[in-house]
Design brief:
It contains ten helices and 13 strands. It is α/β, with parallel strands linked by helices. The chain has one domain: Luciferase-like domain (TIM Barrel). Helix 7 links the parallel strand 10 and strand 11. Helix 4 crosses helix 6. The longest helix has 17 residues. The chain is globular, with a radius of gyration of 19 Å.
Length: about 300
């Protein structure tokens, strides 16, 4: 089992010293990576389910934030939970993601994409809310095509994106593509995992039976598509209060990574939460551990 942490700018703000202090402590504790969320815009009355989102919540740009974190850390992998893929042009996004990966020496490896659930957000960026699933599927294909292309260029002719013999450099660090995990709590998201994803990171509004059914669906769709279902990673949200027994239960469900976060009010309290979890599960690197070395 791997363990990563999340950092919420809507909850804790955008103070750079607090962000870096949290990220560096997470790295020192032995956590695998750091996840951050995204909303491009909010508006009065925006709701997710029954929860209204105050429009003044400070959602920082996730990729700019991760680039900032990368410059202040050595090992921590960089993740999004989730990047709202339909609201990004994949030609521009391919360049941004590859650049972060190169400058961080291969650490932009926990990219998770989703569709977004706020119609007004889609309208604000000129995207038809009803088409965002098809747009996301096409964007995933475009990202991989551009990362894998050479100096002769690649072409794509789809419903939303169209280009002829274009080249996108730099490439990801030592790789022909970055892993793309899929977030979401719907059967459509599970099918997207099976057809295109490298992993699944479902949301938190599912019953245990629904989670099991969707993970099973993702794996079966992968099999039908000629992909290896055992190669799919399975990430879940957790709490710093998780017990060893609960982690074992996650593992029995096929979970390969748990993402925890601290809702404490101060950085000192957040550090204590992460330290306690790391000590309980033996995450801290020891002297001579390669995790202490720079990439």
């Amino acid at each position: 089992m791997r363990f990563a942490v999340s950092y919420s700018t809507p909850l804790h703000g955008t103070d750079p010293d607090r962000l870096i202090g949290y990220a560096q402590h997470a790295e020192a504790c032995g956590f695998e990576g750091l996840y951050v969320p995204e909303h491009v815009v909010l508006y009065p009355g925006a709701t997710v389910g029954a929860v209204e989102m105050p429009p003044s919540l400070p959602y920082a740009d996730p990729l700019d934030l991760l680039a900032f974190v990368a410059a202040a850390t050595d090992r921590l992998l960089l993740g999004t939970g989730v990047l709202l893929l339909p609201y990004h042009h994949p030609v521009v996004l391919a360049k941004r993601l590859a650049t972060i990966d190169v400058l961080s020496k291969g650490r932009m490896r926990l990219l998770t994409v989703g569709l977004g659930g706020l119609p007004g957000e889609a309208t604000a960026v000129g995207v038809d809310f009803r088409s965002r699933g098809r747009r996301a599927d096409e964007a995933i294909d475009v990202l991989r095509l551009l990362w894998g292309g050479d100096a002769d260029g690649v072409s794509f002719h789809g419903e939303f994106f169209d280009f002829e013999r274009v080249c996108s450099f730099p490439k990801p660090h030592g790789a022909t593509a970055l892993p793309i995990h899929v977030g979401g709590s719907s059967r459509a998201a599970a099918r997207r995992v099976g057809l295109r994803g490298d992993g699944y990171f479902p949301g938190g509004l599912l019953t245990p039976d629904e989670r099991a059914a969707q993970w099973k669906l993702a794996r079966s769709v992968a099999t039908e598509a000629g992909r290896d279902p055992d190669a799919l990673e399975y990430t879940r949200w957790g709490s710093t209060e998780l017990s060893a027994q609960r982690v074992e239960a996650y593992a029995a469900q096929g979970v390969t990574r748990i993402v925890v976060g601290s809702g404490a009010d101060t950085l000192a309290e957040q550090r204590d939460d992460l330290s306690g979890f790391a000590d309980r599960f033996g995450l801290r690197p020891t002297k001579g551990d390669q995790r202490l070395s720079r990439q």
